[in-house]
Structure formats: structure tokens, C-alpha cells
Amino acid sequence: xxxxxxxxxxxxxxxxxxxxxxxxxxxxxxxxxxxxxxxxxxxxxxxxxxxxxxxxxxxxxxxxxxxxxxxxxxxxxxxxxxxxxxxxxxxxxxxxxxxxxxxxxxxxxxxxxxxxxxxxxxxxxxxxxxxxxxxxxxxxxxxxxxxxxxxxxxxxxxxxxxxxxxxxxxxxxxxxxxxxxxxxxxxxxxxxxxxxxxxxxxxxxxxxxxxxxxxxxxxxxxxxxxxxxxxxxxxxxxxxxxxxxxxxxxxxxxxxxxxxxxxxxxxxxxxxxxxxxxxxxxxxxxxxx
Length: 289
What we know:
GO terms for molecular function: ATP binding; ATP hydrolysis activity. InterPro entries: AAA+_ATPase, ABC_transporter-like_ATP-bd, ABC_Transporter_VariousFunc, P-loop_NTPase. Helix 6 (about 160-180) links the parallel strand 6 and strand 7. The protein has helices at about 45-50, 70-75, 95-105, 110-120, 130-145, 160-180, 190-195, 215-220, 270-289; strands at about 5-15, 15-30, 30-35, 60-65, 80, 150-155, 180-185, 200-205, 205-215, 220-225, 240-245, 250-255, 265-270. About 35% of the residues lie in helices and about 30% in strands. It has a 6-stranded mixed beta sheet, with helices on both faces. It has a 4-stranded antiparallel beta sheet with strand order 11-12-10-13. It has 9 helices and 13 strands. It has 2 domains: about 5-215, P-loop containing nucleotide triphosphate hydrolases (Rossmann fold); about 220-289, no CATH class. The relative contact order is 0.14.
């Protein structure tokens, strides 16, 4: 299976500050990949590098087998919805569709027209008078009607209310299944990724902490709870992702096969949010050492 996005040693620096550093990623085609991390982790920088809006300081990145934004053919294969789902406030919905048709050689007018009708959007309504959820749906329609091989979404629902967010993500999943898109969806809202993504990248403090198929990552991680364990004493050989201790109890998130620690210890599976938070915690503890 070929990759839709590959990065090796990728980094972007602004002056002395690294926005992204030593980033190595391989996202296979046919997945909805969730890119998650706290604000300032480097998610937007990575996606701007993938779309050719930024040039890397170190390393390299390939998108659909080529350099990002290398030419018209490459640009036509990638759809991008930036943060805040930008649209032109003074243009009507219909004018947005006509602009999309002029700018994109593979434009699917029927898809755009049918989707706008299904959403109940008035073609004569100016975008500036639409609700936040409607603007997001218009931006998604523009990205889908381009008929890209890869759709990149940079926190498109962060400012939406829960109902609008659910409707946007439902529309995205329906379009993904219908048109067999590969998607990279950035968000700091793990619940959104849990509903939509089958591939996961956790990015913390400009570095990739874990990457892989969501199902496999969840199956390979466990929570261990037991009696207080000396934090300075090794519990496992390099498998501890995060550790928390109270006066009487220790809780570890571990990656790999479960060790035999005796009947006093309990193992339980992790949810996606637990997994993400464990790697965020791991990064914080590593920085303190």
C-alpha cells in the first residue's frame, strides 16, 4: 500500500524556536488519519508543510509521491480546509461554487450542487451571513468537489458547537466512504477523532510520540493498577508510557506484552483519549528529566 504522506526528519524553525522537529511519518492511503496534540504542538505547521504553504528547515516531505505544491497536477490532487474554515464573506454560496469550478480542473459541479442542496444552503446567501456550521459545510463542499486524492483538514470544527461539529464530521465520513478519499484530520478534540479516524498520530511539543492504526495501538497498550511501586525502580523493560502514583497505589500505561506482576495488579484496556493523554504525560515527564 502506497503512502499519501511521508516525512523523514522533517523540521521547521522560526528563528531559534522549533515549531516542528525530527518528524518522521508514514500515512498509508485509504485511511482517515487523526493528527492530535495540544495547542502549539506543531499540527498546523506540519499540515502547512504538507500543502506547500511552508518550506521545511530540515528533512523532507512527500505527498502522494511528490513534493507538495510542485505544480498544477500535484495541487489538483490535494484538498485543504484551513483553520476556521475560511470562506469569502462577500461572496454568495453559488459564487463560491463558480470560483471553485474556475480554479480546479477536476471540479465536480454535480457533487457540489447536490451537497449544497442536501445541506439546505441557499445558493444566493452570502457566506458572511451563514452560521459557523454552515460556513464549515461550505468549505468542506469546496474541498470535496475538487475531487482530491487526499483531503487535509486543519481543526475545521474547533469553533463549532457540538451539534454543528457532529453534522460536519458525519458529512465528512459519508463523503470519505463514497469517494474513497484519504484524509488527514487535525484536532485537539479526541472525541472527534474517536468517531472518525482509523489511524492516529500524536504530536506533542513538535515531536511525534506515537503513530499507527488506531485499532492496533489500542490493542497494544494497557493500564496496570496495583500497590505503590517505587518510581525510581524499573517496573518494565522500556515499556512504560506513563506512570502515576498515590500514597498507596501506582498506575502505569504500558506498551507491549503484559508482564507477570502477580495477583495484586489489575490490567485494563485503554480508550483513545486515555492513550493520547498517556503520551502527552510521557512527553511532559521526559522533559522534566
